[in-house]
Amino acid sequence: MRRRAFTLLEVTVGSGVLFLMVVMASMATTSYLRAYRHYTSEGAKLRVAAKTLETLCFELRSARSFEAFPKSLRQAPLNFENSGRQKCSLLLRGDQLWLQRDKESIRLGGAWDVQFLAHDGLLDIALPMAAQPALLTALSLRGMRRP
Amino acid sequence: MGMALLALILVSALVILQWALMGSLRQQSQTRAAFLAQQQMESLLQEEEPRAGQGTFAEGYAWKAQVTAVDDFLKLEVQVKGPAGAAFTLATERRRELHSLALRSQDKVFQTAENLPEPLLLAESGSEYCLSPDGQRMAYVAPSEGKPQIREPPIPTMIGFIFNDPTRRRRLTAMGVRTLTSSGILSRPTPGTTRRSCALL
Questions:
Q1: Residue A25 φ/ψ, nearest 5 degrees
Q2: Pairwise CA distance, residues B32 & B65, whole Å
Q3: Separation between Cα atoms, residue B144 and residue B174, nearest integer Å
Q4: Residue A45 backbone zone (phi > 0: left; psi -120 to 50: alpha; other: beta)
């Protein structure tokens, strides 16, 4: 069998195609990894916000009376009395949500704002998030004294 | 051959990454669906007569509520579906009717119910009440404002029925009626004068 060598043009074209494939594959992999890191990070933020909102709802469910509903916790703290007749106050310190219960301070989780809207016996709660839609839920005010 | 193997490995790696990415998105969507289901459930529980229905939220989420009567209870189920195949179902039960309770404390008669933040004062003297022979109804003397208005049947024979029927109760409450006498006389407080009327709970 006669062995034939490649011409310079064939080697150049072959190497070029291979180089192009490797570059495109690297770009696709890098892009996928970046997207994966982004969504994982967003997912982690959402999980933290979800935990904060859940703890917040748990505390608000124990309320028996509210003084007033501020539109945003950035404007004013939310004051209420719980079923144990303890004076409670929900407030933001930096990007953390805190519950002040008598002289005790409890950190509920990370949040840079919490918004409230009371209507028809319901309290809509929104936890705004950076670069994501706000996390929304509602709480029934049945059996609670409202302002 | 080498290039084909390289391409196969690359495609497999990208598919795995894609699968993980979709999982992360579905998880986020699921978390949001859970809170929206809670929101809808609270709204449903708030209603005097919860009814089945469906609707949509923002961001492509949709809810569907089912209400099934089981004896004295209502079985409520809210399902929220969202993007990336997220689906979350929340179920609970509540009484069909809110039960109220009369109690005597510190020589006063109070009424409490699950939707009242604190007991209502019915009678200032705990001795001014009596129970019907079956122990299901209580007559008491309540301080009220205004002149009692007396109405004739068909109310008297159906007192319990009327006050147990949410629609009729709402209508009567809207009229200003808060008490019914033991003989079926309707007492409607009118501003101006102070009277004491006999009431039935």
A1: -65, -40
A2: 17
A3: 17
A4: alpha
| Phi, psi (rounded to 5 degrees) for B180 | -130, 135
Sketch out chain B's domains with CATH numbers.
49-96 (2.20.25), 100-200 (no CATH)
Beta carbons of A144 and A61 less than 8 angstroms apart: no
The angle at the Cα of A92, spanning A90 to A93, to the nearest 5 degrees, equals 130
**Per-residue pLDDT reduced to its tens digit, A48-97:** 999 999 999 999 988 988 988 999 999 999 999 988 889 999 999 988 99
DSSP at B158: G
Min Cα distance A132 → chain B (Å) is 11
* pTM check: above 0.90: no
Residues 6+ apart with CB under 8 A from A137: A53, A57, A124, A125, B35, B36, B38, B39, B42
CA atoms within 13 A on the CB side of A52: 30
Is the ipTM beyond the 0.90 threshold?
A: no
Chain B contacts to A (CB-CB under 8 A): 3, 6-7, 10, 13-14, 17-18, 20-21, 24-25, 27-28, 31-32, 34-36, 38-39, 42-43, 45-46, 57-59, 114-118
Q: DSSP letter for B124, please.
A: S
